[in-house]
Amino acid sequence: MTTDLLLEGRHFRRDWSSPYDIGRKAAAQNLADIAAMGAVPTALVVGLGLPGDLPTAWLDGLTDGFGDECATVGAGVAGGDIVRSERVVLGVTALGDLGGRPPVTRAGARPGQVLAVAGRIGHAAAGLALYEAGRAGEWPALAEAHRRPSPPYSCGPAAAALGATAMLDVSDGLLQDVGHIAAASGVRVEIDPALLPVDDALADAAAELGEDPLRWVLTGGEDHALAAVFPSEVAPPGEWRVVGRVTEGEGVQVRGREETYGGWDHFRG
Amino acid sequence: MTTDLLLEGRHFRRDWSSPYDIGRKAAAQNLADIAAMGAVPTALVVGLGLPGDLPTAWLDGLTDGFGDECATVGAGVAGGDIVRSERVVLGVTALGDLGGRPPVTRAGARPGQVLAVAGRIGHAAAGLALYEAGRAGEWPALAEAHRRPSPPYSCGPAAAALGATAMLDVSDGLLQDVGHIAAASGVRVEIDPALLPVDDALADAAAELGEDPLRWVLTGGEDHALAAVFPSEVAPPGEWRVVGRVTEGEGVQVRGREETYGGWDHFRG
Predict the structure, then answer these.
(1) For residue B106, is it within any domain?
(2) Where is the PurM-like C-terminal domain (chains A, B) (predicted)?
């Protein structure tokens, strides 16, 4: 079970995103949270605060977005509540089925295990940078990654079944979120930047904007990729890419750089 | 599973209610919804939108209120989300355990069955009227009923176990809510006003304010009493009071008055 509160003007803008994309994104971030515990998402309920003058078509678009994102995992919108509000407010709660397994938390990582990621990372941050630079049209896939995340839902329960010891979805940036695993598990996590996925579009867009693509990958949020720690004897399945290892200590370190997690709050590229 | 979105200024006021009472009330209305389906409430999650300048003590009071109301049913606050917001926003979702039974909906009432209520009805409306008249101090129990409902949680699963065919919690007024049962079940419900509970405090306060206490009982919301329909061969247990019966037809009628449900929207006392 997981819940998020999303406010117009803070988490989304009606002039930047379509209601359909807002619905898909709001559903995705909750469904990804369920998958990251190793569960299969089953149902969503939505509390809606809506302005009295909101066009019906806007609400239809939002509803379609929620429904379509849920449909990608075989879940559905089970109900909700509607109240009048000056600005749009979304209170989203998702439920999942653990299939009898205990939930995978952030606290089970142990030295000697490996860190792996599944799904796109840094693409949403790249898309946002492209929107801000007025160049979103040149990299439509990155722009879409910002408007609509595509979490690798099925990788969550699959990782749990293989014995993943810690997992979460990357919503605030890989460094910060893996830092949560390090803190909760009482371990240190070393990330090897050479193993991080940087595809051509990300590299090209970064070069054009004078950015370091690794900054997007390490600190960009909102992709809702999954990051999980596996025992060393487990070979993570195809969708997973090993990007680091767990050691004794604390914090997150990126190999070849001196800073640990705290320093990366002020990452300068 | 049930969810409600509560907005400052629309559902509560920080200058009228303490944070503790706001927390208890927000929890109560969701837990009552769970009980009204015949389930035992198990957990609550809360999405909190909070102004940056909100005093920490206010949040502590709110949290205590949520926790104490949950404790009355053996449930707990399992988690949540906090975001910054101009005004306080509460997105509350509750879960319950049906104990293997199907949920009791609004749609199972059949002619020949009886309507019963459990818990206080009309007290919250009386309390609000007393606050508005500046006389809340004279009837402290009614005033408290407005600030803090006291739903008869355990009566919900007990009614379900006895075979209740329809049930809900009275949040918008007995007439309107029983009207939902009549509509969903395709039946008519006759309420006998002589059977409705009007205690001395309610009668006294109504006399002083020149009000009809039955108006509070029939149309007052927010008490979160439970209303349930039982098969005629079931004797509802002690906490339940039979107040009417189910017949063929549609709508809700109060014996001795001509109007059916629609007319009661404009109840004049």
Answers:
(1) no
(2) 110-255
